[in-house]
Amino acid sequence: MGHTLNDLYSNFLPQLLPFLLVLMPGFTSTQAAILVASFNISSSLFQPIFGYVVDGKGQSWLIYARTIWMAFSLSLTGLVHGCIPMAALAAIAGLGPGARAERPIQGRLPVGLRRLRQFRLRHGALPRRTGKIKETATLTVVWKAIRKSARELGVILGVISVRTAAYTGLLALLPLYFHGRNVSNIDAGRMLTLMLFTGAFGGIAGEFISDKWGRKPLIVGSLLLATPLFFGFLASQGILSLVFLALAGAALLSSFSVTTVAAQEAIPEHKAMAAGLRLGFVNGLGALAVIFVCKIADVLGLPTAIAILVSLPFAAGLVGLRLRHHPGYATARR
Predict the structure, then answer these.
(1) SS3 sequence, 45-70?
(2) CA-based nearest residue to 44, from 161, 131, 146
(3) pLDDT tens readout for residues 103-129
(4) Which residue from 9, 22, 179, 223 has the least number of CB within 10 angstroms?
(5) How deeply is 302 buried, as exposed, middle or buried, from its count of CB atoms within 10 A (0-12, 13-18, 19+)?
(6) Which of 46, 167, 159, 172 is nearest to 99 (CA)?
């Protein structure tokens, strides 16, 4: 529930953009990108730092404090006028502490989960009591771990950066694209909701596929497939267009959690730090790239910028071809 609320506020700003077009004369695609990117970049720069704090200092309460900070700061955007004040508030909201570190189950379960018999059936035994776990890695140790896995980690973060640029750019420009095509704000919101909703189911399906056939086939295959599906959405109308959009959203986001786990597998001793890198600097780079794409929209038009954005998943898939193959859970068991 906390993560759901966190993501609700994270996607708060893009939904304001069509209204800003009406309320703020001269509002441009570049300004829209700056507004959305301000939150993502400020949040991203601090994610690895808080990931290190959570890993090494045990300050897990920071994870929850971030949502409260973000809710308060973003709610103030309704009290200011102009792109610069709103962007400043968005950046302040992004400074809220807490690394959203997704941690895998293995080895981190506390004692007392005796009702989870499914875990016993799948893994063969309930987790043993290991006492209080405290990680005290220094920056030097973390840096050595990163350098040791630099190639694999670099490829993973490269995939995430390009995919994030596509995802963040679509969230920023699709509302403006729909507005320019005289689509009502309600219908535009429904289409964005459809893309994100099927993306959530795609993420669940992607985890199952990754467990069975491995991380690389899922990451590469889904991203290569996302681009033609998005172009199908842009080239069609009616129900067929919605079907393409739903499938494109599922393909784009099916590797979302899998890439986080892949980053954690690259530096398994520092999982929150890996999540911080994956959610941090990488998302910041992706959001920064969106500003340049949106500048293209102001010069060459929204259709051209959208075409560039939906081409990025294919490029991310090509980068993913350099990933090492990690067998899925089912394959490894056999």
Answers:
(1) HHHHHHHHHHHHHCCCHHHHHHHHHH
(2) 161
(3) 444 444 544 444 434 434 444 444 444
(4) 22
(5) buried
(6) 46
**What is d(CA 258, CA 320) in angstroms, rounded to the nearest whole number?**
13
- Give me the half-sphere count of Cα atoms (radius 13 Å) on the Cβ side of residue 3: 5
- For the record, the structure tokens of 296 come out as 């293209």
How many CB atoms within 10 Å of residue 311?
A: 14
Cα separations (Å) of 47 from 62, 286, 303, 319, 330?
A: 11, 14, 33, 24, 32
Instruction: For residue 95, give both structure tokens.
Output: 């400074």
- What is the Cβ-side half-sphere exposure of residue 311, based on CA atoms within 13 angstroms? 7
Q: How far is CA 282 from the centre of its chain?
A: 10
Tens of pLDDT along the chain (334 residues)? 766 776 777 777 777 777 777 777 778 888 888 888 788 777 776 666 665 665 555 555 666 677 778 778 888 877 777 788 888 888 888 776 544 444 444 444 544 444 434 434 444 444 444 444 444 455 566 666 666 666 777 888 889 889 988 988 888 888 888 888 888 888 888 898 899 899 989 999 998 998 888 889 999 999 999 999 999 999 999 899 999 999 999 999 999 888 877 877 776 665 555 555 555 666 677 777 878 888 888 888 889 999 999 999 999 999 999 888 666 555 555 5
How far is the C-alpha of 302 from the C-alpha of 298, rounded, in Å? Answer: 7
Residue pair 82/34 in contact (Cβ under 8 Å)? The answer is no
Residue type at position 1: M
Q: Tokens for 94, please give them.
A: 């992004």
- The domains of the chain, with CATH numbers, are 2-107+141-333 (1.20.1250.20)
3-state secondary structure of 106: coil
**Distance (Å, whole) CA 106 – CA 75:** 38
| Angle of CA points 276, 277, 278, to nearest 5° | 90
Name the pTM for this structure.
Answer: 0.70
- Distance CA(196)–CA(189), nearest Å, equals 11
